[in-house]
Amino acid sequence: MKQLLLILLAISASVAAFPCTSFIISGKATPSGKPMMFKHRDTGELNNRIAHFQGDKYAFMGLVNSPMLDGEVWAGMNEAGFCIMNTASYNLREDNLDCQMDREGELMYHALGACATLEDFEAWLTTYPQPWGVEANFGVIDAQGGAAYYEMNNHRYIKYDVNQETKGYRVVTNFSFAGRYEDYEG
């Protein structure tokens, strides 16, 4: 627990230096045994609020820009205990961009209305229309203890299971490990 508090303090002190910083702590590293997630949102939109929505399957609450753009959330949690957030990534972009980009908010909005677990999210992604229009790291936790990051671009994702991390947590900023190092612009 002492180590966890030191990590939280260090990350909190550094968010000004690392835009869109997030972390997930697995249940094996928390006193309650449940995963936790945190995100520092770096955005040009100064007006934000929490709004309630009814999705296709689940009701959810999400962080939205004010005035709200319908159908977008920037982090949220649904009634099944499924939570999602993202950090922008600048090194996952595909060379052939034949779609509208920056659709991370749309993807999270629809995922919150449809998914209860990490497994649901992965299955749902196989049916969500491609190209996804994203270049981001999505952090996801669920009520069953699932905790993972998904580095995603328009057509693929790579999953990092936080429950498999040696120390029980993972910190993510605007860089993806699966992306091209030479394309990193952060």
- The low-confidence runs, each spanning 5 or more residues with pLDDT under 50, are none
CATH architecture descriptor name = 4-Layer Sandwich
Q: In the CATH hierarchy, what is the superfamily?
A: Penicillin V Acylase, Chain A
CATH class: Alpha Beta
Average pLDDT metric: 84
- What is the domain tally? 1
Please provide the ordered H/E string of secondary-structure elements.
HEEEEEEHHEEEE
The termini sit apart by 32 Å
Radius of gyration: 16 Å
Helix/strand-derived class? alpha+beta
- Write down the CATH topology: Penicillin V Acylase, Chain A
How many individual helices? Answer: 3
Q: What is the β-strand count?
A: 10
| C-alpha geometry | globular
Describe the secondary structure blueprint for this structure.
Blueprint: H1 2-14, E1 22-25, E2 36-39, E3 48-54, E4 59-65, E5 75-78, E6 83-88, H2 104-114, H3 118-125, E7 136-141, E8 147-152, E9 157-161, E10 169-172
Antiparallel strand pairs: 1-2, 1-10, 3-4, 4-5, 5-6, 6-7, 7-8, 8-9
Overview of the structural elements:
The chain has about 190 residues and is α+β, with helices and mostly antiparallel strands. It has one domain (about 1-175): Penicillin V Acylase, Chain A (4-Layer Sandwich), CATH 3.60.60.10. About 15% of the residues lie in helices and about 30% in strands. The strands form two sheets. Strands 3-4-5-6-7-8-9 form a seven-stranded antiparallel sheet, with helices on one face. Strands 2-1-10 form a three-stranded antiparallel sheet, with no helix packed on it. Strand 8 (about 145-150) and strand 9 form a beta hairpin. The model has no long low-confidence stretch (mean pLDDT about 85).
